[in-house]
Amino acid sequence: MVRTRRLMPLALAVLLLAGCAVEPKEWASSVCAALTPWRKQIADLNAKAQQQMASAKTPAATQKNLVALLGGASDASEKARKAVEDAGEPDVDQGEVIAQKFVESLAAVRDAYGHAKADIQKLSTKDDQDFYDGVVAIITTLNQEYASSRLDTSAITSPELSKAFDEIPECR
Fold it and tell me: 3-class DSSP state for residue 87?
């Protein structure tokens, strides 16, 4: 009982702080700290996939490489989404909306990669032409979903956040 009474103020403080907005520079720093490794991981996955695709001689090998690429990209996007969500919301006008737009954009990217991965896995590798035609269609859809997930930063009209993103080294 004594232990519970001692932990109650701490638990209450954590709950109260969880809903608090953070300073624009702190928020921007957290967001950029999440996005920088995400971008690098996506670039690394693409480079690795290009190397593997050059040596893939069969639809089955191509399928295996694409599934790994798309799964890795989906996982990396979810990790970045979670980190941005954990950053909270910036203490600016419309901070909650701005934070949610960042999270939604990364969720849409994650989902685009996930859909493509699932669709590639479903393709039959028995007929080369059918398989590669299917890959082209899936990648076209992925590119469309990815493009539609793009965050319109021009809609973010917070001078404090714009300044923070411009000043923070992680964001350059």
Answer: coil
**Is 60 exceeded by the pLDDT of residue 16?**
no
The position carrying tokens 């393709």 is 123
Comparing 15 with 31, which gets the higher pLDDT? 31
Q: Is the pTM of this model over 0.90?
A: no
In the chain, alpha helices (H): 2-18, 24-55, 59-86, 95-122, 128-149, 159-167
Q: Which residues pair with 22 in a beta bridge?
A: 90
| Amino acid, single-letter form, for residue 32 | C
Looking up tokens 């996982």 gives: 75
Burial profile 85-95: b = 16 or more Cβ within 10 angstroms, e = fewer: bebbbbebebb
Kindly state the average pLDDT of the residues 3-29.
Answer: 61
Residue 114 to residue 100: CA distance in whole angstroms: 21
Cα maximum dimension of the chain: 71
Q: Domain extents for the chain?
A: 22-171
